[in-house]
Amino acid sequence: MAFERPFAGVALEDLVPRLEFVAAGSITWEAMVNIALPLFIVTMAGQNLPGLAVLAAYEYRPRIAPVFLSTGAASALGAAFGMPTINLAAITAALCAGPDAHPDPARRYIAGIFGGVGYVLLAALAAVAAVLVARSPPVLIEAVAGLALIGAFGAAMLSATQDEEGRLPGLITFLVTASGLSLFGIGSAFWGLVLGLLAYQLFRAHWNKAAP
Predict the structure, then answer these.
(1) Sign of the torsion formed by the C-alpha atoms of 155, 137, 18 and 7
(2) Torsion over CA of 191, 197, 199 and 201, rounded to 10 degrees?
């Protein structure tokens, strides 16, 4: 099996990470609607807004416009090298902004700096990790990915169903997205968001009329 000798036939220089320009083939409206727009909405709702909420909970009030401009510019630059988008991270913000990072709120930025340095150091092992993942049995990767997402999935489902007003729209969003529905070349992630938001507005209008 390849996993018994995962680095067989791999040159040493291939294990050293390096920047490589990735030329965009073409820009289509299907890709913009099917990939870019859902990712933008999910990033804003799932990372940026919770990240700002965590900072606000610890009495940090950053200027929002420079934060989004800098992360957006860095994402656009990194996209030329196939890099994922850069955004605020709610979990990382909670770790670095809390009292566990430093008793003095004015010195908690040190945790963020060391976290960034740690990420850069771990990036040096990215090629090694990629080879191990590529040569691992597919069932092992699926099991690890599933276990890693159990907590996030449970928290997301709890958050989506905890509020009575958002329970049905949240479930509709999840079911449509998980169904794999595709219309006009646009995938289920977009339609899940559209139908979920539409359901939320309809239910909200109904509750407002029913309210005394």
Answers:
(1) positive
(2) -150
Q: What is the pLDDT of residues 27-73, one digit of tens each?
A: 777 777 777 787 887 787 777 877 787 788 788 888 989 989 998 89
| CA nearest to 173, candidates 191, 154, 150, 161 | 191
Phi-psi region of 168 (alpha: psi -120 to 50; beta: other; left: phi over 0): alpha
Full-model pTM: 0.54
**105, 59 in Cβ contact below 8 A?**
yes
Backbone phi, then psi, for 183, in 5-degree steps? -130, 135
CA–CA gap between residue 3 and residue 9 (Å, rounded): 12
Asked whether the beta carbons of 127 and 17 are under 8 A apart, the reply is yes
66-79: b or e for each residue (b if 16 or more CB lie within 10 Å)?
A: ebeeebeeeeeeee
